[in-house]
Amino acid sequence: MYYRVKVEDTVRIMPDQFGDDLDMVIKSIVQQSFEGTVRKDDGIIVVAENIEPVGDGIVIHGDGAMYQKVQFDALTFKPEMQEVLDGIICEIVEFGAFCHIGPIDALIHMSQMMNDYVQVDAENEIITGKEKKKKLKVGDSVRARIVAVSLNELSARESKIGLTMRQPSLGSHEWLHEDDEQIDTEKQKRSSHKKQRPSGGRK
To answer: Which positions ≥6 away from 122 have C-beta within 8 Å?
Structure first.
């Protein structure tokens, strides 16, 4: 889920940048230093904006650089356990598929794809159900539930998110559309059958 949070921290400004527009320098440093990083309580910082210095900077003897407190508004993405979200399949591998969810990729293990045995063709980037013949390929939009979250504060790329699609109303958007059409067809058949049923009664 996405959140907007207020962040306070400190940035280091090198001496050769003192003559530049410090507001622009601070903005650039904050965006480069914080966007794409993970904070334990807030999740992944996607965008940093409304960046402001707080008070005067401090130059530490023997260092030369200036340490400046800053505050800014951050748009963050924090995946929550049991959250249902939409994503796009970006890679098929031997053990399942990776899916873009916001600024990070999550894994749908082959055992969590569908209620069917699956055949994975990583070379052609397609997964097929053996009995129902449902297919999943790169570029497909899916709806899944988060069942495992491990955010790595040192490297967002090393974070691990696990998804499942083995529950009602989850799966490829194409599958869900087909399921809805099948339900509508069955309803129409039942309705038509009721209308055609001969009415009985005493004479």
So the answer is: 92, 93, 94
CA angle 180, 1, 47 (to 5 degrees): 130
Cα-to-chain-centroid distance, residue 130: 28
End-to-end CA distance of the chain: 66
The structural domains of the chain, ordered by start, are 2-77 (3.30.1490.120), 84-184 (2.40.50.140)
Angle value at C-alpha 21, between 20 and 27, nearest 5 degrees: 115
Q: Is 145 left (phi over 0), alpha (psi -120 to 50) or beta?
A: beta
Residue 52 corresponds to which tokens in the numbers above?
A: 């402001």
Nearest Cα to Cα of residue 97 among 108, 113, 84, 86: 108
pLDDT digits (tens, 9 = 90+) for 114-141: 999 999 999 999 999 999 899 999 999 9
Reported as half-sphere exposure (CB side, CA atoms, 13 A), residue 156 has a value of: 19
Distance from C-alpha of 35 to C-alpha of 194, rounded to nearest angstrom: 61
By percentage, how much of the chain surpasses pLDDT 90? Answer: 76
Task: Mark 165-174 as b/e (b = at least 16 C-beta within 10 Å).
Answer: bbeeebbbee
Exposed e or buried b per residue across 58-82, where buried means at least 16 C-beta atoms within 10 angstroms of its C-beta: eeeeeeebbebebebebbbbbbeee
Which of 120, 157, 146, 148 has its CA nearest to residue 135?
A: 120
* Structure-block tokens of residue 168: 């009602």
